[in-house]
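Dear all,

This email documents one entry for the complex benchmark we are building for the journal club exercise. For each entry we list the sequence lines for every component of the assembly. Then comes the predicted three-dimensional structure of the complex as a token string, followed by one or two observations. Please use this as the template for your own entries, and keep the labels exactly as they appear.
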Amino acid sequence: MVLDPAETKEMVARYPERRSVVLPLLWRAQERIGYISDEAIGEVAAAAGVPASEVSSVVTFYTMFRREKPPARRLQVCRSLSCAMAGADELVAALREMPGCGEKFSVETVECLAACDRAIAGIYNEGLVGPLNLAGSAKLVRDGGAAGAAAPAGSSGAGAPLEGGGRP
Amino acid sequence: MITLTIDGKTVSVEPGTLLVEAARAAGRDIPVYCYHPKLAPAGACRMCLVEIEKMPKLQTACTTPVSEGMAVHTTTARVKEAQHGVLELLLINHPLDCPICDKGGECDLQDFTLRYGPPSSRFLDGKIHRKKALDCPPFLVIDEERCILCQRCVRYEDEILHERNIVLIERGSHMTIGTEGRDDYGGYYSGNNTELCPVGALTSRPYRFKSRPWDLKMTPTICTQCSLHCNVRADVRHGDLMRLMIHDNPQVDGGWLCDRGRYAIGDAKAAERLSHPLVRGGEVSWDIALAEVQNALEAGPVAGLGGGRLTNEAAAAFKQICGTVDWRVGRQTYARVPGVAEATPSDLSEADVIVLVDTCPMEEAPILDLRIRHHKRVIDVGPVPGMRVGPAERVVCAPDGVAEALRGLDLSAAKHPVVVWNGRGELVEAIRALGAPVLMVHEVANARGAHDAGLETEGDILAACAEGKIHTLWLAGANPLRSYPADVRAALEKVPVLIVSDLYPTEVTELATIVLPVAGPFERAGTFTNLGGLTQTAAAVVAPRGLSDERIFQRLRPAAQPAKDLPARRSFQGGNLLVRPHLWSGGGNTRFDRTLEAARTALATVRVHPSQGLAAGTHVMINDVHEAVVAVDPGLHPAVVVVPDRTFAGLGADARLRAVVPA
Amino acid sequence: MIMRLLTDGIGEVDLRDIGTYRARGGYRAVENALRRMSPKEVADEVSAANLRGRGGAGFPAGRKWSFLPGDGRPRYLCVNGDESEPGSFNNRMLVEDNPHLLVEGVICSSYAIGCSFAVIYLRGEFYEGAAIMGRALEQAAEAGYVGEHILGSDYSLRIVVHRGAGAYICGEESALLESIEGKRGHPRVKPPFPAVAGLYASPTVVNTVETLCCVPSIVNNGGAWFAGIGSPKSPGTKICSISGHVRRPGNYELVMGTPLRELVEEHAGGIRDGHRLKMILPAGASSAAMTPDQLDTPLDFDAMAAAGSLLGSAGLIVCDETTCAVKVALLGESFYAHESCGKCTPCREGTKWVEKVLARLEGGQGRPEDVDLLKSLVGEIGGGKCLCPLGDFAVTYLGSALKLFEDEFVAHAHGRTCSERLQARPTASVATGEVLSA
């Protein structure tokens, strides 16, 4: 049993139609065990009232759902325009040269994270990070936790005074 | 009516008509891949872009409804350029393996490229390679490279089947079709995908590398695997039946076929077929055999069993020859409900409430189920769920509680209720009380025709055999040792002369005095009457092996002494072991069909309620004789055990189940 | 000109706390709407405000709402928070830093259209945004702004946060609805439009985060007041996200019609030292490039369209002269090829083909005929031939770049590369350490 039946029931009840609970329950399963297992797919399908093959199909559509357990430390680096212009490809290449890449930690590329003001932006496990540099990112994937150069992105209130209307 | 012009030609069509259909009415062909008249428009392939005056962009003809005064152009330079573009894009990753593709010659990608395509490709960047010849048992073969992702199959699975055996996997340029999370197809209707597929991405294992379409002689006929009689097109190459194709009859099949109907066509080539008449085990000529038959017909009381698989003409002749005949050699007792209106398949589409009376259309007449599983209100009454796909209001009752459960239904608010029943058990009064038209689903293909031909008796012929009252018993396409709800071997052994006319050597041909090999389906012409009372003609498309039943009866004189004063019919109600139709085990001789072996499991499945405490996959012995494997079905009445029909000979209602440790 | 209508207080106080938000006048619009206005009056004010959709198309929200048929079916409001266009990051700021403004906008708008179930769809990568939004909804419910009988009225509203899971296409409104229904995010055939058959085939309004965040101030101050701000045909403010080779990338809320030059040169601090502007992609990767001679274009929907590009969601990517126009095309096309849902042929097959050709060009493997091939493929994919706008988006920049910077494409097509241009770091960006010398 991957999902908590009581919680599943409560989540189903949030929506006017049952099958809307597919994505929320897949997220819940991934939060609980780190990935979407076959068992999880069966449970989601049963809760949402759709065939398991349909849930599997949905899982393959969305890039954030994983069918395998990821390493403990997982850095996803944005490779879209502003971050690429800031050297994302080189950063990723350098990190992938590090020993332990693929086993102890993973470095993946993702498309735009809507954090172009922090290029190079990334997601470390489940938190937005950036601007990333090599030293900080290397420390992050090697040792985990928030590193100096890879400041976790949080509220803009933590930043410098606003120049105009928004986030510096 | 809406009037518009297409390429200058004026055409009037119903409001809501899509441009692609309006163009057909105007005699213009607009090429389509994703569009299919039985599926909701998808606008996916972009092959049908047309130019509409006053609209700046090209529009898809498959998604655009007509409007008054619309001026549509299908052959302008812009349209041609767009068609070039789509075809060039569809072909960049296509393997171009047309020489070995089963679809060659009837492929829309070939045909449209010829008519609308660019002369050459500018693509030089390396094709994406994907899985080819991927087996999708029992019958499908998937070629991911040939797939143009028109999504007809996945839409069919969703909109028509509600099953989703084939789904989209991944997205963008990585997208493919396939069975996700399993290797096999998992349903009864896979073959329609091979016809929906406009290219060679979904082909069938049985037809693989068999023929080119231009070598095929195509003849419309009907399928007689079940009592629905779906219309088919029989494709014959050099005298051999190669395949069956959809031949849409909206009143009957709605343009779909089930896999048993489509693939169980091996009789004409089957090695096991009876080849010569046999008298007491010895091969004889037809003249000698028929002379022996004539003698037997004149030697004492005569009765016939079967006839539900014969043509209407042969059934009438059977009745004429034997006098006392009953088509009912299985569990079905009624072919009609006296005094109640008969419903047709089309009525299901109009109905506001459908009541399934202890009947599972998916197993008994699969294409009929496609009209039911969509339905917004189905009341499913009985100890075994009749509705396998789609929502239903389930009324669970004990095997002997169906009549009472029906009495609890109130259909007075329904405007067009339809009752679906398979004629088993003593439910006529309870069904009549519902006051709704009844659609019968029959155990054998032409039960309705046999009923009309008068092939029913008051009494019980097999009981008469057991009492020694019958001298000559003729089994015409009937095998009570597999279909009758009790062991009747002793009764058959007591008959002085047993005549069996059939296609294959069976348990009863072993007991027979005289065996007559008869022509099989697709080998003989005649009419059949379906479950809705519609009489249609079956064509002979291949040479017969043996005489047709009708021809045999024509060469005989009627029996001198038809059996009389038969004992009363027995009732087989009671007991918790229920023998229920199952697609792969039904259909008379389909157990001899090699093609269907792919769909059958080594061991039959028995279904039990979870409260029985047997885990799914457990092996069990039935009556300490038959081994089977357990499936758990929470929809069952807790006490019942369901076994497939025609799988275990002579299984009575008192059968016992015992769990065993698998070897 | 800076005008902080939606961003007021961000960076100064913690607006995620409902107490702080209310102390600054928050939730007054809910009280005004529910206590003093009929739903129609709220909708009328939004119509009068001429509030145009901030998601990109600029369609007036009031008109969108007016399309809902009154046939007794339930109505739904879906908030498009799937912000994924490369270069755009203003919705994330609103969700993370001013969540109650969005909740307030959703309540007022739901009330106006007669909806009792609203969905805030946030892209899956907004882990923190989803948590913040969830907490804001809890606070709003505790304060009686969400739930049964809001503020003692007859009006009840349920709001759920629904997370995407990594699919740009779900920003397309019909794909977003599919995603809320638990399906793959494939755009639907239109018509029917969501207003007629949207979520669960019921009448549905889909508005983007920033659009709905404008509603509370319209309710409080009146539509006429809003309509008087900025460009007459594109009134209000727009939060512009600016990134790339500028000194101060970030979000700047400007009065509609503010010249592009003011944003780039004043607020974003101009191009990094020692470099000069080459081009701007004003609506992220999907927009036609604009050149330095167009810097005086006012930032509003119509002026940007007249200039041959679009305002879109105002995610401006600024490139200096070191930027290779071919590489930018490749990065953009890789994005669209990755994000193509696969439903329709030109987008699925075409974006991948264009990506392959551009990768070859960029990698020095170009062929002379590639430039014409690319021009032709822009036509095969673009011009409204695809099911949804993604196909057009995927070739808009490319089409513009093939005109503006054809010489660069020709040079690449003859085997020359200039990838070194992109490896120069913008100095305004935080130092990237060793990568610089890598």
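Observations: DSSP finds 19 helices and 33 strands in chain B. Chain B touches chain C through 37 residues (CB under 8 Å).
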